[in-house]
Write a structure and sequence with these properties.
heterodimer; A: mainly alpha; two-stranded antiparallel sheet; 14 helices; B: alpha/beta; four-stranded antiparallel β-sheet; 10 strands; globular
Amino acid sequence: MFGKERRSIFRGERLGLLIALAILAAVPLYIKDRAIVELVILANIYAVYVASWDILCGYTGQVNFGHALFVGGGAYAAALLNFYFKLPPWITIFLGGGVAAIFGLIIGTPCLRLRGPYFALATFAAAAVPYGLTDVYWEVTGGLDGLYGISPIWPTLTGKYYFSLLLTAASCGLIYVGGRSNKGLILKSIREDEIGAMASGINTTRYKLMTFIVSGFFAGLAGAFYSHNQLHVGPETLSINLSVLVIIMSVVGGIGTITGPICGAYLLTIFNEMLRQWEELRLLIYTATVVLMLIFVPKGILPALTEEIGRVFKKKKGGEIAYGRTVRGPGID
Amino acid sequence: MDVLLEVQELTKYFGGLGAVRNVSFTLHQGEMLGIIGPNGAGKTTLFNLLTGFLKPSGGKILFRGENIVGLKPWSIVNQGMARTFQIVRPFHQLTGLENVVISCLSERGAARAKKGAEEKAWKLLENVGLAGKERIVAKDLPHGDLKRLELARALATDPELLLLDEPFAGLGLPEIHTLSPLIQKLSQEGHSIIIIEHKLRELMKLVKRVMTLQFGEKIADGTPEELSRDQRVIEAYLGKGGRTFATV
């Protein structure tokens, strides 16, 4: 409906996503190293973390510094329900998502009145509270050690892998489609100019709050899956380190595109693991790479890449193809 | 003619400063009203009060007989009162089309978009003279086009009452001479319009009634001819003894 150019880009983007999905689906078939499969499972989970962060922050422009609140909320909810009430994982995962969605509502309501750095600080603080609570109520939560003995989602590694892929494909797919829909367009208008959006008759408060809830739900879902994947839950799921990591992955990948942050999640997870051979230098190289990327590819890897491909494509055709800048899609967002 | 908007003793204080003081006026359906006044007279504040971006310190705003004081800006838009901004506020990273589609997705805009939001946005862009520029990102559009885009966005919410805040500001004469007939046409199509404008000559061609504000107070309300003879209006603009220069 948005015209020919947009469709062709859409097709290109979808093709890319399908190829990526196919590669991910083939991982356990060709890779026999258990550690690598476990690593890709972790990357799958991270992909959901960043996608759910991006729909809130990249789209509406409010930078959430406490995404771990949703992740950890889901992780603890699932783990506690499983540990104490013996609920099966397929129920606790959804309940974890639900609990995080409620967190989104509770945190979203007061935070909506705040802007910029105040918003960031409030989200930062909101995540710090439950982190502290895990220690205060150590008898229930296991304190700093966390709880061990959470049920596995699936007994075999391959089964677990495909479960994680299903979670990622479904969650990221829904977020992606939502972001590209009219609702996503409205979220972007809030980022661009909230007053302008209000003057356009958009109930910005309702949209922001809904996004908070959606973002919380998917992050909680993935957090809950993480608990069942690790068979353990600990306060690291609520830590500021995780919140910051999610932001770094998103920024490196390309904020506001959904696909960009997902790309960033896979790249950085794998890159981080590759660096383990030089363990003593790992953090140094990792940080330096991230900083260099922010300086030289500030838009993020994926938008920069698509723009480059678009340019080459345009040259080849020699025609006037409105690419990137004038069309909705990665590269301009 | 029915009364569309009735403003009663509207007042807004910023601290001790009375930006708008006891302003009352009525607007009939289909009427076009001009608002003039020196800088700082409270014109834009009045618009911000009417559209819910500011809460009045006192007074009432009856829109179609209902008091809309305290409603959020978006509900006022969805009741049928839309505005443009003096300093344009486009969604910079979005295309011209997307800018208008947003308004078409508002409650009121969507309810009146029979063939879908996009179809409606295309048509509106064509109507305001932006045909062929639908795909250009707003930040790459020149100022004149942004003014038109602003108008298209307001129209996309299907307003009964349109508030235009200095639609000609920053435009050259040729641009004004294409925009002015457009506003005229909107009025003929049945939109009620309130228009703030500093370019008096252009404004007087459009409206049959002008209200003058000074220091937040209404000092005159009448036809352009009456106003051009009004001692207080002339003094507001040109100072005491300015009458000899007045040739509006």
